[in-house]
Amino acid sequence: MADTDTAIPKLNGAQIKELKETFKQFDQNNDGVISLMELREVMGSMKLRPSDEELQQMIKDVDRNENGTIEFEEFVVLMSSPLKTDEDHETQDRELHDAFAHFDLDGSGTISKKELKIAMANLGDDMTPEQIRVTMNTYDLNGDGEIDFQEFKVMMRGETRPQPNTSTSLSRRGSKSRPPWRP
Question: Per the record, GO CC terms (predicted)?
Answer without folding.
Answer: myosin II complex
